[in-house]
């Protein structure tokens, strides 16, 4: 590292180092991140499981949502542990040195930012999918077989965008302490950050806003002229509107959680010679909001999509119920005989409707009893057994 880079790195590390938080503040912030880490891992895993276990859920939009959930898993794995280290030991601090420590520094920065790039591009892909579903419904069916290539392209582009991180991030020792930092000159850092903001924030936001505006315009037009063909258009229009609400909610949550951190980075990077430093608490809040996005998506799906609600509850019920008899939709009918001579056959049939948003679960339990065997009646030399049948609908 030459002298100029050493000076830039030293300024980057020392300029905005503020006095350490009190112990109570450190404990609270650390616990907040530990809780968020566990919740993010569980909720994003749950999203993936819901779509994986139900073939009817494997639509284009849901597969893209799974892709976003996979990218969100990178945040609790890479970003949150690093955030906890900085809370406890200071800004940009790194606890592992040597070749392994530097490799881990590069990969951590790379994966935590690639998660954001993947999420943004996935939101654009969802908007494009919804646009085709509303404007060109016949062509929309051709997109699903190609969604895996779209997902691969998203990860490839995100990797290219952040590949320079693998070169730029490095570790260094200052005053006996190890730091993980971006080793570029300040002028290069400003240029790279500006390009990233345009590519990851400004352009996607513009595309998404344009596409959803066209979708809303088309749906309003369908409402005006759809009365003449109500039976044909009602189901598709309702489905499009429901998915549109959920998609818009995801976009709004993402950009609202992202925007404060963009403001923080802009102040920190573009202030003259790094002399203006935002408060440490402001940095924590903005960064925490970004990391919350993955967990907030779960509640968005749960609120706006009945299929996700049903899937979430079905999985949670299997986890929480120690045996099937405790589950309310898997009740067993246990009838015991006073004479010890009865035998029962119990069969449970679950009927699921094919609607995506208005599924109904109906369970039919039929109990056939050979009770009262003593009432056998002999007629014409044959024995007729008395049967008692009960149909129970739950």
UniProtKB/TrEMBL annotation:
Q: Does the keyword Lipid biosynthesis apply?
A: no
Give the matching Pfam families.
Answer: 7tm_1 (PF00001)
Q: Where is the G-protein coupled receptors family 1 profile domain?
A: 43-301
Which GO MF terms are attached to this record? G protein-coupled receptor activity
Q: Which residues form a coiled coil?
A: none
**Cellular component terms, GO, for this chain's entry?**
plasma membrane
Q: Which InterPro entries match?
A: GPCR_Rhodpsn, GPCR_Rhodpsn_7TM
Locate the transmembrane regions by residue number: 30-52, 150-172, 192-215, 246-270
- State where the protein is found: Membrane
**According to its record, how does it sit in the membrane?**
Multi-pass membrane protein
Supply the alphabetized keyword list.
G-protein coupled receptor, Membrane, Receptor, Transducer, Transmembrane, Transmembrane helix
Concerning its family, UniProt says: Belongs to the G-protein coupled receptor 1 family.
Please report the name of this protein according to its UniProt entry.
G-protein coupled receptors family 1 profile domain-containing protein
Q: Which organism is it from?
A: Desmophyllum pertusum
């Amino acid at each position: 590292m030459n002298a100029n880079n050493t000076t830039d790195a030293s300024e980057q590390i020392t300029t905005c180092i503020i006095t350490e938080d009190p112990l109570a503040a450190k404990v609270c912030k650390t616990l907040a991140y530990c809780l968020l880490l566990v919740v993010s891992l569980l909720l994003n895993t749950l999203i993936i499981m819901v779509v994986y276990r139900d073939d009817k859920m494997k639509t284009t939009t849901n597969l893209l949502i799974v892709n976003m959930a996979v990218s969100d898993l990178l945040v609790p794995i890479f970003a949150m542990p690093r955030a906890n280290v900085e809370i406890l030991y200071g800004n940009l601090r790194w606890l592992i040195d040597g070749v392994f420590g530097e490799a881990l520094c590069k990969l951590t920065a790379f994966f935590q930012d690639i998660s954001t790039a993947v999420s943004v591009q996935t939101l654009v892909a969802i908007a494009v999918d919804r646009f085709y579903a509303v404007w060109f419904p016949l062509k929309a069916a051709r997109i699903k077989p190609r969604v895996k290539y779209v997902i691969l392209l998203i990860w490839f582009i995100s990797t290219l965008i952040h590949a320079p991180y693998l070169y730029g991030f490095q570790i260094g020792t200052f005053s006996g302490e190890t730091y993980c930092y971006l080793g570029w000159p300040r002028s290069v850092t400003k240029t790279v950050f500006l390009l990233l903001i345009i590519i990851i924030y400004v352009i996607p936001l513009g595309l998404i806003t344009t596409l959803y505006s066209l979708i809303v315009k088309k749906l309003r037009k369908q409402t005006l002229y759809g009365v003449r063909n109500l039976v044909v258009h009602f189901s598709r229009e309702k489905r499009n509107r429901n998915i549109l609400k959920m998609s818009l909610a995801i976009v709004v949550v993402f950009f609202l959680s992202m925007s404060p951190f963009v403001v923080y980075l802009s102040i920190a990077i573009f202030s003259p010679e790094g002399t203006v430093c935002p408060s440490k608490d402001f940095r924590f809040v903005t960064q925490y909001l970004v990391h919350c996005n993955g967990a907030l998506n779960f509640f968005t799906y749960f609120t706006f999509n009945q299929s996700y609600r049903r899937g979430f509850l079905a999985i949670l019920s299997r986890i929480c119920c120690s045996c099937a008899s405790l589950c309310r939709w898997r009740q067993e009918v246990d009838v015991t005989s006073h004479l010890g001579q009865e035998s029962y056959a119990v069969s449970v049939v679950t009927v699921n409707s094919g609607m995506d948003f208005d599924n109904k679960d109906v369970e039919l339990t039929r109990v056939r009893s050979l009770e009262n065997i003593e009432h056998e009646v002999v007629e014409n030399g044959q024995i007729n057994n008395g049967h008692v049948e009960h149909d129970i609908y739950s």
